[in-house]
Design a protein that fits this description.
- This protein is mainly α and 157 residues long.
- The chain is built from six helices and two strands.
- It has a two-stranded antiparallel ribbon with strand order 1-2.
- Helix 2 packs across helix 5 and helix 3 runs antiparallel to helix 6.
- The longest helix has 25 residues.
- The termini are far apart.
Length: 157
């Protein structure tokens, strides 16, 4: 698989990926969502636990409530995006981690955060290849926002 043309293609994708903060509300095919999630599923994860779950939100009223939960109305215009893909941690995957990682909250959190960040990066690169923009919305990780979003989407612990 030593193909310099693949590297050139990859480098072009990496160079052209941007964090987009203002979106058109134009819909795009569900196939694109499937492709982005499929790429993200191949991301490296700590101890290959793949601790992610993806939630796709298209309903405007629900997206508005998520934006409200983040307490940043019209934050950078991401509220206009036609789709939110929420990247969640499935904490049940921690059973696949070695005991020293399971028993250290800091090591566990670092392993999970790194894994989720990798999945988002792959998702973002896939979006770029499809001509779509993406952006990590970090305030959604705040405990109060997480709690409200879980409640809105009926996400169990």
């Amino acid at each position: 698989m030593n193909n310099p043309n693949q590297y050139d293609t990859l480098l072009e994708i990496v160079k052209n990926r941007r964090s987009v903060r203002f979106f058109k509300s134009d819909p795009f095919p569900d196939e694109f969502i499937d492709k982005m999630i499929e790429a993200a599923r191949w991301a490296p994860s700590g101890f290959h636990t793949q601790p992610w779950e993806f939630v796709v939100v298209k309903q405007k009223d629900l997206k508005d409530k998520i934006v409200e939960a983040i307490k940043r109305p019209k934050l950078g215009g991401f509220s206009d995006a036609p789709v939110f893909i929420l990247l969640l941690c499935d904490w049940r995957t921690k059973v696949g981690l070695p005991p020293p990682v399971q028993s250290s909250e800091k090591r566990l959190e670092n392993t999970v955060c790194s894994s989720l960040a990798n999945a988002f990066l792959y998702l973002s690169l896939a979006a770029s290849t499809l001509g779509l923009g993406s952006c990590w919305v970090s305030p959604s990780a705040l405990p109060e926002a997480q709690s409200k979003i879980k409640e809105l989407l009926h996400i169990p612990e």
